[in-house]
Amino acid sequence: MNGIPFVKMHGLGNDFVVFDGRRDPAVLDLDDATAARIADRKTGVGCDQLIVIEPARDDLADAFMRIRNNDGGEVQACGNATRCVANIVMGELGRKDVIIETVVGLLDANGLADGRVTVDMGQVKLDWRDIPLSDAVDTNHIPLSLGPLSDAVGVNVGNPHGVFFVDDAESIDIEKFGPVLEHHEMFPERANIEVCSIIDENKIRMRVWERGVGVTRACGTGACAAGVAAARRGLTGRKVEVILDGGPLTIEWLPDDHVLMTGPVATSFSGFLHASLLGNH
Ligand SMILES: N[C@H](CCC[C@H](N)C(=O)O)C(=O)O
């Protein structure tokens, strides 16, 4: 069978096509259009994010992870994919602690006995300039409202998030409000939009509209943003379980502003990408 090998993986249903650019240089330096073609759920393999594992640049890292959304755009962070890539690298190296490099820094990952993976997603940023926002506002109360959503919390987890709290997250038409908020002028780099309801001081229900993708079953960086936002508002403690459409993630916001995310990894299938999808006819 010819073609470029890939592995189809997911984290709570947030799904990925994972290529190994260390072995297949043809998948290095993909352009946005090619990435979108591969991610297309009808004529490509189909995924929320397209991931390419590359050789590490930093001597401390075991591998570099490049992340592209379903729309082909390259982004800075993807928590669920980080667990999947870490799981691959742990298997290659035969150890449970690995370091995954991204465009925004080094992420420590640790494999647990139950098969889940904990990733230190780095230090969250809370200043308006770092979200980023277009106005110098208090990021704990962003003056943004649309329909039933108002008073967002801005959090950067390597990527931008706008977190809204409501009484019942399930009742919000996120397909209607998500795209408008994703592209709102308040977010110069657009934003991932989370809609959350507090179950108790240790548990949050969250749904997500992802930048460059749409509604996904789970978003690791979004869960980190929701956990931090809830703690900032005094709605929960600093360690919470975030219940996503696809299942739970455990999030802990440490005193040094690092955020730990723990969750599962799953592999669906392996395959071979036909060269025509790479634009090589
Ligand atoms: N699903 C990913 C988030 C991808 C974020 C991406 N949509 C962006 O544009 O930042 C996660 O598990 O963290």
Task: Outline the structure in words.
The chain is an alpha+beta fold and 281 residues long. It folds into two domains: 4-116 and 265-278, Diaminopimelate Epimerase, Chain A, domain 1 (Roll); 123-263, Roll (Diaminopimelate Epimerase, Chain A, domain 1). Helix content is 16%, strand content 41%. It has four helices and 18 strands. It has helices at residues 32-39, 79-93, 174-182, 220-232, and strands at 4-11, 14-20, 49-54, 63-69, 74-75, 97-102, 105-111, 117-123, 142-146, 149-156, 160-165, 192-200, 203-210, 214-215, 239-244, 247-253, 258-263, 266-273. The two termini are 17 Å apart. The structure holds 2,6-diaminopimelic acid. The site of 2,6-diaminopimelic acid has 16 residues, from helix 2 and helix 4. Belongs to the diaminopimelate epimerase family. It comes from Thalassospira tepidiphila MCCC 1A03514. It catalyses: (2S,6S)-2,6-diaminopimelate = meso-2,6-diaminopimelate.
Individual helix count: 4
Distance between the termini: 17 Å
CATH homologous superfamily descriptor of the largest domain: Diaminopimelate Epimerase, Chain A, domain 1
CATH architecture of the largest domain: Roll
Helix content: 10-25%
Quaternary state of this entry equals single chain
Structural class: alpha+beta
Report the biggest beta sheet as strand number plus sense, adding barrel if it closes: 18 strands, mixed
H/E element sequence: EEHEEEHEEEEEEHEEEHEEEE
Bound small-molecule species: 2,6-diaminopimelic acid
Low-confidence stretches: none
CATH top level of the largest domain is: Alpha Beta
CATH topology of the largest domain: Diaminopimelate Epimerase, Chain A, domain 1
Total beta strand runs: 18
The count of domains is 2
Strand portion: 35-45%
Name the shape in a single word. globular
Compute the average pLDDT: 97
Radius of gyration: 18 Å
